[in-house]
């Protein structure tokens, strides 16, 4: 008798630092004949913090849409872990398997405390009142405490999310993502609208997060990218133009041609 094990049918393999967690291979997405992604290929390792940069319209958000199952490519492969074909899965299944995405605008529950927001994010069952009135386990409490430490909001545990600063709301939302135990986090323009201090702290949070996850950050803020000093992928017209550390990117001829018109 053959027993199909649901867990094993999505076996992403062992996760360890330096091992590939995401492979985007030859992906093309067309909108009415226009190629938003054009034979795009790159990969991300577990334990890595990768920055993706590129001009408006370069295809950064479309790439995230493909990885999270929102947009289906015309061609190419997207593989999670060793062999999970993400193109066969729908959005909820992709979230379930461990890919979390943070959009630019924070969407926290304004009238609930920091702690409660994290508690709500942890539940599969999003029915508000049921969640808030049921008891959480010690283990769950520990996870919330640990996450509040990671996002620097421990002191504000009881504070309503509505009165947090823009930066603090962004961190809380990152925390809410963490509560769902993702392995790969996709974060779109996290530091837009932040104060310089908040930008620094966001860099710290994402760097710490990347140690136990893989983090892909789309950003326009070059100072921020320089400060986190990670590997950078430059997208241009839906393809990878260059990849490397910030210094090699700044000295890259193709990048200079496209960005500085040299
Ligand atoms: N649903 C869609 N229908 C038609 N064209 C689209 C669609 N989504 C994206 N595009 C086009 O695809 C290209 C890439 O868009 P995308 O949003 O991925 O760029 P981006 O790199 O995220 O840009 P930005 O920095 O402005 O956020 C753009 O030219 C955009 O107009
Ligand atoms: Mg975008």
UniProtKB/TrEMBL annotation:
Residues 22-262 form the ABC transporter domain. It holds the Pfam family BCA_ABC_TP_C. The gene is urtD. GO terms for molecular function: ATP binding; ATP hydrolysis activity. InterPro entries: ABC_AA/LPS_Transport, ABC_transporter-like_ATP-bd, ABC_transptr_urea_ATP-bd_UrtD, BCA_ABC_TP_C, P-loop_NTPase. This is Urea ABC transporter ATP-binding protein UrtD. GO terms for cellular component: plasma membrane. The keyword ATP-binding applies. Keywords: ATP-binding, Nucleotide-binding, Transport. Coiled coil: none annotated.
């Amino acid at each position: 008798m053959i027993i199909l094990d649901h867990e094993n049918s999505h076996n992403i393999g062992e996760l360890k630092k330096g091992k590939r967690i995401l492979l985007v291979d030859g992906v093309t997405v067309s909108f009415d004949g226009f190629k938003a992604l054009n034979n795009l290929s790159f990969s991300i390792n577990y334990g890595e913090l990768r920055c993706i940069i590129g001009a408006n319209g370069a295809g950064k958000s479309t790439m995230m849409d493909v990885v999270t199952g929102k947009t289906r490519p015309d061609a190419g492969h997207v593989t999670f872990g060793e062999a999970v074909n993400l193109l066969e899965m729908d959005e909820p299944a992709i979230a379930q398997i461990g890919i979390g995405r943070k959009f630019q605008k924070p969407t926290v529950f304004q009238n609930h405390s920091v702690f409660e927001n994290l508690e709500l994010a942890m539940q599969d069952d999003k029915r508000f009142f049921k969640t808030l009135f049921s008891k959480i386990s010690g283990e769950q409490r520990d996870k919330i405490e640990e996450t509040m430490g990671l996002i620097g909001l421990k002191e504000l545990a009881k504070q309503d999310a509505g009165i947090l600063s823009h930066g603090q709301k962004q961190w809380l939302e990152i925390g809410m993502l963490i509560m769902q135990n993702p392995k790969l986090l996709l974060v779109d323009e996290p530091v837009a609208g932040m104060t310089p201090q908040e930008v620094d702290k966001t860099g710290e949070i994402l760097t710490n997060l990347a140690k136990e996850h893989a983090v892909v950050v789309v950003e326009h803020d070059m100072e921020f990218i320089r400060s986190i000093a990670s590997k950078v992928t430059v997208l241009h017209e839906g393809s990878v133009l260059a990849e490397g550390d910030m210094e090699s990117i700044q000295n890259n001829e193709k990048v200079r041609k496209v960005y500085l018109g040299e």
